[in-house]
Design goal:
Elements: H1 7-19, E1 25-29, H2 37-53, E2 57-61, H3 65-70, E3 75-82, E4 85-92, E5 97-100, E6 108-110, H4 111-120, H5 123-138
Parallel strand pairs: 1-2
Antiparallel strand pairs: 3-4, 4-5, 5-6
Helix pairs in contact: 1-2
């Protein structure tokens, strides 16, 4: 029987090929949807960080917060569901605030609060995960 790659291996192969292609920009739409977290961390995050440091423009649409943060982005854009509608928040890496797209002048959201709410699920879920991880690490 011939060797066959899994769908995740095929996706990783195609993604790595795309990241090694010439050009000034990279657009990725859910690059981690069929690829395991370890493979993303091992093969993709480092490559994206290197491309960014080389001055390439990288646009990533993802639900994977680790991919979004670990690649050292210059800009963040989040779509947030609130009261049965969506709002767009944007920020720059050196800003202390996220701005609401519709209310640029008068709506500022503290950067750390937005990151905590969107990427970590809020302070309480973050604390629960931290307590679990701390107990597992300390009990080894």
């Amino acid at each position: 029987m011939p060797f066959k790659l899994s769908s995740g291996q095929e996706s990783l192969f195609v993604l790595v090929q795309a990241l090694n292609s010439p050009g000034d920009f990279v657009i990725l739409d859910e690059p981690s949807s069929r690829i395991g977290t370890n493979s993303i961390m091992e093969y993709v995050n480092d490559k994206l960080t290197k491309l960014r440091r080389l001055g390439k423009t990288i646009i990533i649409a993802t639900h994977n917060s680790n991919l979004g943060i670990n690649t050292l982005p210059n800009n963040f854009i989040f779509r947030v569901k609130e009261n049965n509608s969506y709002k767009t928040l944007y920020s720059y890496i050196y800003s202390d605030y996220f701005m609401d797209e519709k209310h640029k002048q008068n709506t500022k959201h503290p950067f750390n609060d937005v990151i905590m709410d969107i990427l970590e699920g809020g302070k309480n879920p973050y604390k629960i995960r931290k307590d679990i991880y701390d107990s597992k690490i300390l009990n080894k």
